[in-house]
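Task: encode each sequence below as structure tokens.

Item 1
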Amino acid sequence: MGGLDLLSLVFGLVISLLLLRKFLLVVWWIPRNIEKQFRNQGIKGPSYKFIVGSFGELAKIYGSKAKPDEVVPPIAIGSQIKHTLIQDLLPHLHLWIKKYGKVFLYWYGPSPRVVVTDPELIKEMLNNTKSFIKAIPHPAIYDLVGDGLLFAEGEIWARHRKIISPFFTIEALKGYVQTCISSNNEMIKRWNDLILSDGPEFEVHHEFRMLTKDIIARTAFPSNFKQVDRIVELQIKQMSMLTQALRTFYIPGSRFLPTPFNIESWMLRRELEKMFRELIKSRDKSSKDNDLLGLMLSATNNEHDKGNKMSPKELMDECRIFFVAGFETTSLLVTWAFVLMGIHTEWQDKARHEVEQVLQGKPPDYDSLARLKIVNMILNETLRLYSPAPFIMKTVEKETKLGDLTIPAGIDLEIPLIAVHHDSQQWGNDVDQFNPARFSEGVVKASKHPMAFMPFTSGARVCIGMNFAMMEAKITLVMMLQKFSFVISPNYKHSPDCLVTTSPVHGAHIIFRKI
């Protein structure tokens, strides 16, 4: 062996040892050190296991649970069904909160996650946007929503929020009421025809997706409706693929491998980007800028105020997130409200009576919506039981205080809204039952702690579209209650899933009767 060969061998050995050291640091020494830091502060959780973290315990827990498509239909159980989402869908949270408390540590492989369900600590996190920033729990989520308002931070978030805010002012919302009414009227007419030809049963999740797509297209993205239809179709497919991705263990870098799943995902993303470019281009040729896309295009073309300028990529990312938020979250809120009123028809009757008293047979307007107390109670209870977005993820880039705890840099924090909304200590022993009366004195008095209810999050980063979504949902409920009575169908399977959004796996089948 020559001197050069020996040098190469030594060099290779040194590199291998350095890589091994780095590997052991990441998968053993750092996790053990973090675990020790938290245990010294009284924070416990399932013990870290080499490389796999908590996946062994998770596999045991979920191996004994029914899949979403194995859940018994509520119609077979009766109207007193308990909506036990934590026990049924997130049993690890149910068990670990009981065992370790409202703050605990678990491991996503070698990556630490701190789960926080204490409302006071959540309040502190959401109010401290500089220390606790948004985390992306899985790279596939970025493909769906991009780097827009949902995940932007600091100056970028503030600039985007300023540009978009005029679309969501009270005066702007008042202007969208008639559009919402027109879209609902078209759906009602179509339903009346379908009831005569095909029967009275509808799968309402699909129907309300189409309704909210129509409303978001008319108010925020007035353009070619065929483009809008295709974008929504592609994003629904993308959400389905995201759900598949979240069910598998993610190996860093694996999304760049040319697997059949990844190739399909890449093609889907490219087609969506093409559709958004065409949508933006066709809208750019029209004149008015008072819709959401128009406001963002004005910012993109703004050469006079570069501090409020939006780049073409930023524009596309905002289109992505507002399409998803615009049609999916609102359609889920309305879908679950109809499911719950279809089971608990006594609340449907109360809401209809209120609508008759307030509106006297007239279409709703913005001011009359505020007087519909029972309708609002039903929507809030729906949001509590079936929050469209079940989780908030945060991360800390440097060591940060949270209450009496010291959170090391690089730790992800998980706020399971669904667990907070189903906490019997906050909501009482009927926590898993549909009881809109708990909101009879408003949101603040509904639970022991005001932060126990935050379906649109809270603090500075509260969902910008909250009032739009609630207005849209109220108009739909009001107009449907004026025209139809309804009950849950015997064909309905109660099979919610909450990996991406809290959605009905097998749809929501409801039987309607014209009034």
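Item 2
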Amino acid sequence: MITDWKNEKAEHFEAHANDALLPLYRWFVRDIEQLSGKPVSGSSILDIGCGPGFMLKALLDAGASDVTGVDLSASMLQAAVRSRVREALLVQADVARLPLMPAAFDIVFSRGSIFFWRDLEQSFLNIASCLKPEGTAVLGGGYGLSSPQELVDAARRDHSSNHSSGIPRIDIDHLLALAKRTGGVAEIKSAPRRGFWLVWQPGKLSR
């Protein structure tokens, strides 16, 4: 079901997932498992900037125990309901004003939407709050670190002609510093021409 929170027009660069991107979602699941050290199967997962629900479906197909999707766009959430993820809880909200219970998720995932977050500091505080004490956030953008190269190349060709010009630049060093300042342990995992993930465990004490 959809829980209405606030009617705002989403400024989402990926309004419609395309044929070149679709094969990558299962590899994003693999990235989550490798980077977090947690199996998706049996986990409670939040997807921020879930769009029309392709990643939500991939998470459910991988055995996630429950999945919640957050997006600013009501039309994207309606698309998710119609065709993909009737089993997921869908919430229309800004990441800086998440109406979610604290300590609710094993994993928080976001791909692509972090470039558009207007209040990074509050967004990070909310993510830290809604993660369980041993939970992990995997936040970033791109085509995945474990994705086969031919799929990455196809997706890059498609996005270079259709989407990439509208994506704001982001300082990943600033993201890393903000995560560490908010609390816990964080690191950046990246690869040339593939993108990056910020892997963050807010509840883990640094050594």
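Check on item 2: Residues 1-16 have pLDDT under 50 and may be disordered. The first helix runs from residue 25 to 36.
End of task.
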